[in-house]
Design a protein that fits this description.
Helix content is 29%, strand content 26%. It is built from 14 helices and 24 strands. The strands form 6 sheets. It has a 4-stranded mixed beta sheet. Strands 2-15-17-16 form a 4-stranded mixed beta sheet. The protein is elongated and about 65 Å long. The structure holds ligand EPZ.
């Protein structure tokens, strides 16, 4: 089992180019089943992307990497069943459901696995797809989904702006008969990126001013090329690494407007932030100030995925910070691991109170999930001594060349088998 060894105390300084967004690439890879052929540029080298390519192969398409791009081809006959093992590897596999149904008219998939962030049901996905004419039955942990003749458009009102449910409906509706309107749709940048991809393939997807997503179904989609947007969560994570070490960092290749709710938090902590449309420069103070209250919300609010890396940075602040996790039921799994490094954090339900301490010490710690793993790496960069991070497969799901990037800006980090 691979591990990371991080020797804390170095002040990070330098420039990093941020990779393509995992949470944009995954739904777009699922949607690529529909045109059958496409080239995705700026597609990140992540194990979750590999898992999605494996699912495409299982479904009869093939996906291979050419440098920074992934080429998907072979949209011929599509197998409509995703085996249990692949579905369990990551929760976002559920976003293939809409694509398979749109392509083949039926799908058989097992209930998905993925991050342990509390119960992660798929009821919103299923209820939404039923509005488009999908008949869904459950059979020994498998979902059997069928369409009598062709998917039809409809009005889908999401009780919660679920990112995945919005994406599933967009993909299924792209080839449905008639118009679909998604009310209370998610507004994350990854939704717009998926819409841009579908439109590049000849789809008709429009995001209205009020946030409704309107999809006019077409008979077929055609091959296209698309550039995946930059990963705003990776950007927030690297900013947290620089902030906790009193460092300075220039991020390039970002979409600064996607971090509009994140950058003010770093300024509140005493960091100087300078931005252009595609670059962010952060200069941290010797010691960070606390955060009055960070509430995670659907976009454009503060993103839940950036909560744990920012919490790690707050552990060394000169005061107490409050976090309120409104999106997932259990997204504080990193807290016990941070506590092993000397952090002083109290969790009550959705609220976490972080009392800043003067110093953290090294420890052997476990990555609990993707962003929780990133959080303990952030803390280890500023802890006294050498920390050992276990189960780093979680980190590899969402961060490309993680230790190389950190080492390139001065971190003392190495991966060990
Ligand atoms: C996407 O997950 C992201 N994953 C998550 O990133 C991100 O945290 C989340 O959106 C919120 O922004 C991908 O895009 C691959 P949701 P998703 O559906 O689609 C509940 C990361 O670290 N819910 O918006 O699963 C759900 O339990 C990952 O990169 C239902 O109740 O998020 C959660 O509490 C983690 N029923 C809330 O909604 C449903 O049918 C948000 O879920 C679906 C969701």
């Amino acid at each position: 089992m691979e591990k990371l060894k991080i020797c804390g105390g170095s002040r990070l300084s330098g420039t990093l180019r941020v990779h393509g967004a995992k949470n944009a690439a995954l739904p777009i890879l699922a949607a690529s089943l529909l045109p059958g052929e496409c080239v995705l540029h700026n597609c990140p080298r992540l194990t979750d992307v590999e898992a999605a390519c494996n699912i495409l192969a299982q479904l009869g398409a093939s996906a291979h990497r050419e440098g920074e791009s992934v080429v998907v081809s072979g949209g011929g006959d599509c197998c409509c069943c995703i085996p249990d093992e692949l579905m369990r590897r990551m929760r976002s596999s559920i976003v293939f459901l809409g694509a398979i149904i749109a392509k083949c008219g039926w799908a058989r998939i097992s209930l998905p696995g993925g991050c342990e962030l509390g119960p992660r049901p798929i009821d919103l996905h299923l209820a939404a797809l039923e509005r488009l004419g999908v008949e869904i039955g459950e059979d020994h942990g498998y979902l059997d989904c069928r369409v009598r003749d062709r998917l039809h458009g409809g009005i889908v009102t999401l009780p919660f702006p679920s990112v995945g449910a919005t994406e599933n409906v967009m993909i299924a509706a792209a080839l449905a008969e008639g118009e679909t309107v998604i009310r209370n749709a998610a507004r994350e940048p990854e939704i717009s990126d998926l819409a841009d991809f579908l439109n590049a393939c000849g789809g008709r997807v429009r995001i209205a001013q009020n946030g409704d997503v309107r999809i006019e179904g077409v008979r077929s989609l055609s091959p296209c090329e698309h550039r995946v947007i930059s990963d705003r969560i990776a950007a927030a994570t690297y900013l947290s690494c620089a902030a906790i070490t009193g460092g300075e960092l220039l991020l390039t290749g970002v979409c600064t407007e996607h971090l509009s709710a994140v950058l003010p938090c770093f300024e509140e902590m005493g960091c100087r932030i300078e931005t252009t449309a595609e670059t962010i420069r952060l200069e941290a103070p010797k010691r960070l100030h606390p955060l009055r209250c960070v509430r995670t919300m659907p976009y454009p609010g503060f993103p839940t995925d950036a909560q744990s890396p920012l919490m790690a940075a707050a552990c060394l602040a000169d005061g107490s910070s409050m976090f309120v996790e409104n999106i997932f039921e259990s997204r504080y799994k990193q807290v016990p691991e941070l506590a092993r490094m000397g952090a002083d954090i109290k969790v009550e339900g959705r609220i976490a109170l972080v009392h800043g301490v003067r110093e953290l010490h090294s420890a052997s710690v476990h990555c609990t999930d993707l962003r929780g793993g990133a959080a303990i790496a952030v803390a280890a960069l500023a802890a006294q001594g050498e920390s050992e991070l276990l189960e780093i497969g979680h980190i590899d799901r969402g961060y490309e060349r993680f230790e190389e990037n950190l080492a390139s800006i001065g971190a003392q980090v190495r991966r060990e088998a």
